[in-house]
Amino acid sequence: MKTKRYNFFRLKMSELLVGEHEAQRNVKPCNMGNAKTAGLLFAVNSETDVADAEYVFNHLKDNNISVSALGYIVDGKNAANYRRPAHFDFYTDKDLDFLLRPKSEAAKSFAGTEFDILIDINSADYYPAKMLLNSTMAHFRIGRFADKRPFDLMMCIADDKDVRYYYEQIIFYLQKFN
């Protein structure tokens, strides 16, 4: 994973003024069979990231789950290089406010939607995506394990495993919930 550098002053102001406050939400574990709505967050560093998000999106749709997908294009200068499926929304650094919070309508709509489950593929390492994750109204957030992540279920997956393996593990554990 590449490290993204943000303006130091803006980052510190955001951490000071906004912090990592979570939205008031009702945390409710959800079995995969009972999920009606899902949010999918991902970061785009390569075309592979878009393909991985499409794989997860299509699998959720195949299980009759209504899915909203939002991607953060990390290098906005190369945004035109990535294929943008019509059913995905994207934001870049141009869509961030002074405090590095996503301000696009797509991001605001995504954060305000009460998803049964929210799956983060790979975006939580990026500060703006973490801000979005903290503000989402999803009932159950799922993501990769790390300290100080805004997830209700964290998956400890080796870095050499691909997104399909990661998603299979999510499905396995979500099917275990009653």
Would you mind describing this structure in some detail?
This protein is α/β, with parallel strands linked by helices. The protein has a single domain, classed as Glycogen Phosphorylase B (Rossmann fold). The protein is 31% helix and 17% strand. The chain contains five helices and six strands, in the order αβαββαβαββα. The chain has helices spanning 8-17, 47-62, 105-112, 127-135, 163-174, and strands at residues 37-44, 66-73, 88-91, 117-120, 141-144, 153-155. It has a six-stranded parallel β-sheet with strand order 3-2-1-4-5-6, with helices on both faces. The longest helix has 16 residues, at 47-62. The termini are far apart.
In brief:
The protein contains five helices and six strands, in the order H-E-H-E-E-H-E-H-E-E-H. With 178 residues, the protein is α/β, with parallel strands linked by helices. It has one domain (26-174): Glycogen Phosphorylase B (Rossmann fold, 3-Layer(aba) Sandwich), CATH 3.40.50.
Characteristic terms for this protein:
178 residues; alpha/beta; Rossmann fold; six-stranded parallel β-sheet
N- to C-terminal separation? 35 Å
Percent range for β-strand residues: 15-25%
What is the CATH architecture assignment?
A: 3-Layer(aba) Sandwich
What structural class is derived from the secondary structure elements? alpha/beta
SSE diagram, text form:
Layout (H helix, E strand, L loop, with lengths): L7 H10 L19 E8 L2 H16 L3 E8 L14 E4 L13 H8 L4 E4 L6 H9 L5 E4 L8 E3 L7 H12 L4
Parallel strand pairs: 1-2, 1-4, 2-3, 4-5, 5-6
